[in-house]
Each structure stands twice: as structure tokens, then as C-alpha cells.
# Entry
Amino acid sequence: MFNHIKEDISIVFERDPAARTHWEILTTYPGVHALLMHRFSHWLWKKDFFWLGRFFSHIGRWLTGIEIHPGATIGRRVFIDHGMGVVIGETAVIGDDCTLYHGVTLGGTSWNKGKRHPTLEAGVVIGAGAKVLGPITIGEGAKIGSNAVVVKDVPANATAVGIPARILEEEKSKQREATAKKIGFAAYAVGNDENDPMIKAIHSLLDHAAKQDVTLQNLQAQLDRLNMDIETDAEVGEAFNVQATQKNSVKNQE
# Structure
């Protein structure tokens, strides 16, 4: 447990540039306090001291504004930044090296017993205000955008944004940037907020321009092949032209 406490404190220096000293982190970071109290309440829960576990969880919520059910499983080097309003349900599983910002909910969508909360694999980052709901899995290294509502599995290393959350298509984003550069359009102000009508319109134009480029390239390739066929056919026709062959033979005899 003491090793976990050391890691909970030291990891803050890596993920929060505002952190200055160990004493400051230990005394003023609610995310660290919430994790410390959860380690103890989770231990009580595992020993079947359910009421005591819930009681210490309640005290932790009162002191930090972060509600973590004592039944939740939390890995090592997890960082809860700011933390106010974070809610983590009973059957939630958080892997190592995950980061959660304020207002995050790892909640359920059912009143049935059993697994009903999300599983976060290692290295997941969840932005402020995001809601991850149900017994879904967020793959290793995935990122959830701020205020997103996630109700389906997210693959490893993917980025999910929006309500309901959608997986960003990295290849399409790169294609849009390349198309924008090709037509001389500065797309630096175009973000991934798909709910913005202006961004939707610009993305549609860029996608349309990219499709036109592909179509023109295919047409050019077909024209090039057609020209080659015409030249080849002319040479073959000349070779099988009887009159031309006879004239060439007469010239050769003379």
C-alpha cells in the first residue's frame, strides 16, 4: 500500500505542471486524497466490511468532492486531476496509468446486479465532464474528449468525441488536412467538434474535393491507357496492312 501511495504522489509531477513539492501534493490535491481513502475503503470492502467501506467512501466524498465506490478496482499510477464531481461506480475497473479530469462519470445504465460499469484499460485519458456508461471497455491508450457520452466500446489508441461519442477517423482527418493544403485553404481553425455546423460544412467540402481528386486521377490514368492502346493499335494495324507490306517489298526490290 505504501508503494501505491508513493506512486500516487510521484505521478502528479509527470501530469500536472502546477505541482511543486511532495508536501503540496499530499496536503492540497483532492485527487490524491480520494485515491488514498479509496485504497483503505477498498481493502475493507474486500474483507467484507461493507458498511465500513461505504462509510469511509462517504467521508472521502465529503472531503474531496470525488465519489468512488469501495467496490471499484483502481490500478497503479492513476491520476485524478482537480477531481470535483468525479463519480466511479461499484463494478468499474480502472487500469494502470489512467488519467481522469473533473466531472467524469464512470456509471451504469442498468439496475441489474453484476458488471454494469466501464472498464478502462491502461493509459486511458478521459476529458473533463465526459460520461462513460455501461459495462463497456475503453481500450488501452484511448482518449475520451471533454463532455463526450460514451456508451459503446472504444478501440485501443482511438479518440472518441461527441454526444453520443464517435470514433474520430484519423486517416480521414489527415486526408482533409492534405486536401486543405493542396487547395490553399488554411484549416488551422477547424477542430474535431462535429456538432458545429460550420465545421460540418467545411469537412463536407474537403471530403468532396478529395473525392473529385481521386476521380480526376482515375480518369487521367484511363486516358493515358487509352492513348497507349491507340498507339499500339496503330502500330499493329500498320504491320498487318497488306498494301503497305507490298509497297515496302517493291521498294526493297528496287
Notes: Helices lie at 2-15, 22-28, 30-46, 50-64, 170-182, 197-239, 242-253. Residues 70 and 86 are 14 Å apart (CA to CA). DSSP finds seven helices and 15 strands in the chain. Residues 186-191 have pLDDT under 50 and may be disordered.
